[in-house]
Amino acid sequence: MKEKKAVPAVEDMAFLIEFIQRHAERTEEAMLLDLESAQAENDPLLFEVLKYSLLKGGKRLRPVLAILSSRLCGRDDENLYLLAATFEYLHAGSLIHDDVIDHAENRRGKESVVKKYGTAAAILAGDWLHARCMHLVGTLAGQKGLDIVCHATQSMVDGEFLQLRYAADPAVSEEQYLSVVLRKTARLISATCEIGALYGNAEPTQQKALARYGEKIGIAFQIVDDLLDYLGDEQVTGKIV
Asked: What are the structural domains, with CATH classification, of the chain?
């Protein structure tokens, strides 16, 4: 007789969803407080653009993984949510720049930042988000955390160049596709897990284990996200199919 595979109970899935939503909300609260603290030093239009890009939806996958990684290693405090928010800053900044490159008019069911505010504002807002991420990661996770996130950011840019190269090639191989996925998506998700573990005072072996976990999650996530471009329901995903 074949052994039956364990299926998560409905109650367990409901708990997981509620847990993720709760920590995503706390991350959003940390973002708002951080933006408000920096607002006096910057132009009001910048913060209009930032709030539009940051608070109009999103899965908050990267922040939640950073939080879970730190908590798994034994640390949970208020600054953890600010650290988690930095990964949403970096992700949002990269999406803004992606939309400039792609001349995209929509993002998450709304006008893209570049469509609503123009190219100059979009580029500058994305730059600010990248810089803010680096500043906060360095402050909260030290030089090692900064090194990790800088490496992931460089990899994202490299992945974008690879994607530009392969865009006109209808015969892209699986290996080439995965090389883009690894650089553009997986390494940042890996970095969020590794830095979360670093913040949680994990042993180096634990940090690397969570980094590998994040990389695999990132690859799987991007494959599914790419499939939704062709197979998804636009009303559900907010993505143009």
From this structure: 12-237 (1.10.600.10)
What is the C-alpha separation between 82 and 143, in angstroms, rounded? 17
Hey, what are 197's tokens? 């573990």
Helices (H), 40-170: 44-54, 61-72, 78-102, 113-117, 119-166
Contact 87, 192 (CB under 8 A): yes
Distance of alpha carbon 222 from the chain centroid: 11
Q: In whole angstroms, what is the distance from residue 178 CA to residue 9 CA?
A: 33
Go through the chain and tell me how many residues it has. Answer: 241
DSSP string, 209-238: HHHHHHHHHHHHHHHHHHHHHHHS-HHHH-
* Pair 180, 159: CB distance under 8 Å: yes
User: How does pLDDT run across 92-146, given as a tens digit for each residue?
Assistant: 999 999 999 999 999 988 999 999 999 999 999 999 999 999 999 999 999 999 9
